[in-house]
Every structure is written in structure tokens, then in C-alpha cells.
Amino acid sequence: MYQDLSITWGDGRGQVQNNGQLMTLSLDKASGSGFQSNNQFLYGRFDMQIKLVPGNSAGTVTTCYLKSDGSTWDEIDMEFLGNSTGEPYVLHTNIFSQGKGNREQQFYLWFDPRADFHTYSVLWNPSHIVISVDGTPIREYKNLEGAGVPYPKTQAMRLYGTLWDAEDWATRGGLVKTDWSKAPFTASFRNYNYRACVWSNGASSCPSSSSRGGSSWYNEKLSTAGQSRMKWVQQNYMIYNYCNDPKRFPQGLPLECTLSSKSS
Ligand SMILES: *[C@@H]1O[C@H](CO)[C@@H](O)[C@H](O)[C@H]1NC(C)=O
Q: Which of 19, 21, 153, 168 has the smallest count of CB within 10 Å of its CB?
């Protein structure tokens, strides 16, 4: 954690502990906190184990995302929207390409993400982006550039993690506010693991297939088993999909929604 990530804000509310094995972020009424990766990447596979804010986490948002700089940025989001004690967290995902997002999909999880660490992963390679939870793919965004859908592939991204307050919208659309008497709220991160092409001085250098666990991720496609697991998640745990929300898109659904149901 010391080697690959730096705490960038929160004035002491973010801490590396246990000899670099654990990173905690906390939030109180004055501020949240956050970290970022020291490197930027152009393609990679990123795994992070996260244990979310326990108890009443309503109003809080814990994030782990990839983002490039500038005004036409690319971004791959995993945001965990807290909830009252006993009520389910929502995993909110989005994908921005060239500054444009509006590709939200939201999921409940099939376990209690406050009780234990679970592994949340992003695979980003030239053919697709896959978001997975404990190795189960929940969302795939295919490279459909040939058909005119913008795909993130020229801007290097950094990994970020944050814990912040969003009581205006996070829980039941803002109906449930943060209970500040329970502050500070704390989320924990560990076992950050990545295999990626590191960006430096305008060039990307990818690991050789023999180092860092090989570069099979670079060509990885969803297996048939992965596709059917993703279908299981989407049928049972998806609570919002922009592709099923034509009201939002009076000009017609985004192209990737109409090209392939699997690309969403
Ligand atoms: C919080 O719990 C309510 C009630 O079970 C649920 O409708 C909602 O989706 C949950 N999550 C968020 C982030 O509001």
C-alpha cells in the first residue's frame, strides 16, 4: 500500500496501517478522505479488497475508481452507497468515455459488504471493460468502437479511493440523511493487486507475459461460465440499468444498448 498508493486528502483521516497491509479512510462532519495510485495506467486489471462502513452508513459513499485527467476524461466507477443499519448497500457503476457518462448500472450485492472484505475488480483491456465482485463479472462494456461507440483507449487513468458524504442523494435518493452522531465512519482497503501497463513520459509499458502474473488479462474475454454468472447477477441483483430507461433518452437509447444486450 505504501509503495503503490498515496493518501492525498483528508488531513489524517486516511491512514496506512499494519506495515502497509491495510488502508483506512474515514469521514466525519468536517471532511472525508482519499488516496490515489502513484502510477497512471493504460489498460490493466485492478483488484481491491474493501470492507465497507459498518452499521448505519446512510449518506456515505465509498468509492474505488479509475479516471484520467482533463475535460474529456475517461472513467470507470464503482461507488458504494451506504444505507441504514440492516438495509442493503448499492453498488453504483458508471463508465465515462471522452467526458461523457450517463451509463449507470446499479446492483445489490449477494452478501453483506460491511461484515467482511470482498474483492472488487476492474479489467480494462483493448476489447472490453469488466467489473467483477469476488471474481463474478457483474458488468461488461465492450469495445464497440467499430460501430461508433467511444471506447477509453488513449488516456491513461489513475486509481482512486475515497470516502465522502453525499447525504443529498446517496441513500434512498437523499431521503435518509447521515447520522453524524455515528461519526467517524470508516471503510477499509487491503490487498491492492494489479497487472497493468504503466504510463510514463507519454508511453505505456506493459508487463511481459512472464512477469506480474503474465499478461493474459490483456487478451482476456468473458468465458461462457463468466457470461452466465453475469447474467445471474443481472437478473437477480441489478436494480437500475440505463439501457432499460428510455425516458432518460428521448433521442433514443445510447448506441451500445441497442447494438448488443451483453455490451451494457
Ligand atoms: C437502502 O434501503 C432501501 C430500503 O430497503 C432500498 O430501497 C435502497 O435501495 C437501499 N440503498 C440505497 C443506497 O438507498
A: 19
Active site residue 79: yes
Q: What is the CATH number of the domain that holds 182?
A: 2.60.120.200
Mean pLDDT of 95-115: 97
Whether 83 lines ligand 1, by a CB cut-off of 6 Å, is: yes
Runs of H (alpha helix) within the chain: 224-236, 255-259
Q: How far is the CA of 202 from the centre of ligand 1 (A)?
A: 43
Measure 230 CA to ligand 1 centroid, in angstroms: 22
Could you say which DSSP state residue 100 is in?
Answer: B
Q: What is the pTM of this model?
A: 0.95
- Indicate the number of domains in the chain: 1
Residue range of the domain that includes 139: 5-263
Average pLDDT, the chain: 94
Which residues are CB-contacts of 173 (< 8 A; sequence separation ≥ 6)? none
Percentage of residues of the chain with pLDDT beyond 70: 95
Residues 2/16, Cβ–Cβ less than 8 Å: yes
130-169 pLDDT per residue, tens: 999 999 999 999 999 999 999 999 999 999 999 999 999 9
Q: How much is the pLDDT for 263?
A: 42
Scanning 185-223, the segments in alpha helix (DSSP H) are none
Locate all alpha helices (DSSP H) within 80-154, ordered by sequence.
Answer: none
Of all protein residues, whose CA lies closest to atom 8 belonging to ligand 1? 172
CA distances to 90, 95, 161, 167, 171 from 111, in Å = 12, 24, 21, 24, 19
DSSP-assigned states of every residue in 11-38: TTSEEEEGGGTEEEEEE-SS--EEEEEE
